[in-house]
Each structure stands twice: as C-alpha cells, then as structure tokens.
Automatic annotation (TrEMBL):
Keywords on record: ATP-binding, Kinase, Membrane, Nucleotide-binding, Transferase, Transmembrane, Transmembrane helix, Tyrosine-protein kinase
PANTHER family according to UniProt: FERRIC ENTEROBACTIN TRANSPORT PROTEIN FEPE, TYROSINE-PROTEIN KINASE
Domain AAA, chain residue ranges per copy: 2-157
Family: Belongs to the CpsD/CapB family.
EC class (word): transferase
Pfam families in UniProt: AAA_31 (PF13614)
CDD domains: BY-kinase
Lineage of producing organism: unclassified sequences, metagenomes, ecological metagenomes
Catalytic activity: L-tyrosyl-[protein] + ATP = O-phospho-L-tyrosyl-[protein] + ADP + H(+)
GO CC annotations, alphabetized: plasma membrane
InterPro entries: AAA_dom, Bact_polysacc_biosynth/exp, P-loop_NTPase, Wzc-like_C
Protein name: non-specific protein-tyrosine kinase
Annotated EC: 2.7.10.2
Amino acid sequence: EGKTVSVINLALIMAQAGNKVLLVDADLRKPLVHKYYGLPIDPGLTDFVLGNYHWNEVTNTISDIMLGEFGIDDILKTPGMDTLHIVTAGTKPPNPSEILSSTRFRQFLKEASKDYNFIFIDAPPVLPVADASDIATLADGVILVYMVGKIGRGVLKRVKTNLENVDAKLTGVILNKVKSNAGPEYYQYHSYYYYGNEPEVKKDKKIKTSKSHKNKSNKPAHKRKIAGSIMLVILLSVGLLGFFWQDMGFTIPDWLASYKNFFHFN
C-alpha cells in the first residue's frame, strides 16, 4: 500500500540533501526493498542477527546496486545513490519477532548509528503483528504511512495509542493516494491483505527522482543534521481519510517540513 516506496523515496531525498543514509528492510514477513533495487535478499539483516555476518558485510553500497538490475545509467540519473546504503531483509526466519526483539538487532542499530546521519527502517504493518511496536521503541521517530479512505478514524487512534503505550515517538503521517474528492467513507479493517500474494515489481521499473529535488544533491545538507538518527517508518496496512490526522496530535518535524509538498502533508 505504499510504505516501502515511501521509505525508499524519503531515504533517497535525505541522501540527495547530503546526508549519509542507511535503509533497512525490517519487514521480515514480506520484504520488498531488495526487489526495488534488484538486490539479492540475502545476506541481510537476519543473517547478521543470527551471527553469520558482521553488519558491514550485509550492507549494500552503490557498487552492489550497480551489479544488480539497477543499471549504471539509472544510477547516474539518480543523485544521492553514492551516500545511500541498503540492508536487505536476509534469510527468512521462522520467527521474525525474535529477530527484531533480539540484543543483536539492538547492537546492529547502535553500531550503524555511528556511521550514518539517518537510518530509515521499513517495518511491518503496526496492527497485524507486534514486530512494528517492538522496534518502534528503538527509533528516534515513527512515521505512519496509510492509504487514504480505507478505514475508520478509530483504527488510527488505536494505532496511535498502541505506539504511545510503548513510548514510541510519533513524528508524523504520510498520506498515500490522496484524492480531492475523497469522502468520509468507512471500511472494515482487513489485516489478511498484508499476508496475501506478494505484488510483482517489474524489473524495468526504476525509482524516480522527484523533480523538485532533482538538482539538490550539490547543495549543502539541511542545517539540522541529526547524527545517528534512526527513523522508523511503519505502515497501517489499511488507510484513513487524511483530514483526521491533525486532530489526533500528529505534528510535522522541522527537518521534514521542507519536504511536505513532496509527501502531501497538510
């Protein structure tokens, strides 16, 4: 429903702003980041947690991306790729929750935060499984992503309450597929969609650079660099009408406000 594309683009924008960025696929039940970059799924996060690799050995750089399906021409057309590193999900574990709640996972984030300005984590949906809530406590900020017009106001409030109960720091909301004619419809929550067939990612489908940020790679980094920040992006596997989120206490951080037009923040 757009969470993976959202976190990929957000990570790329921050890399284009001059930051050193690490993108981590922690959606171990349904990983997709590797598909968008044409990378092998393993070795990755789970392989480090299981003790088979050092975290540097599971980190993909621009050289690894060039060897995949993301051709050199596409890399040259996409500023920021040289400062964007990627950790794929890795070998599928029998129990993803144990991986994400492990001491090794915390160690991974602690060590990686010394080398990067931002770490973006693509997490599982927050309601169907407990994984997202578990790792939300490790992040400096949580951004909720949802598709507009799919669920009622109460579901988003419940998600907000659940995250606050574990002391997660709610940073803001990314609205996906906003339509000007969206009405206040309410739909039943269907968590089973998340576990359905994995959508196909076409090999020739490359990540597009926003026109408004296309030439910003040579500009100075944003004044407010946060060394070692960990941003966690969590998806509600269904959406809500966008005009509700401001009434429930969500705010846009200063460092992200300059990108609000790209993400359709209100």
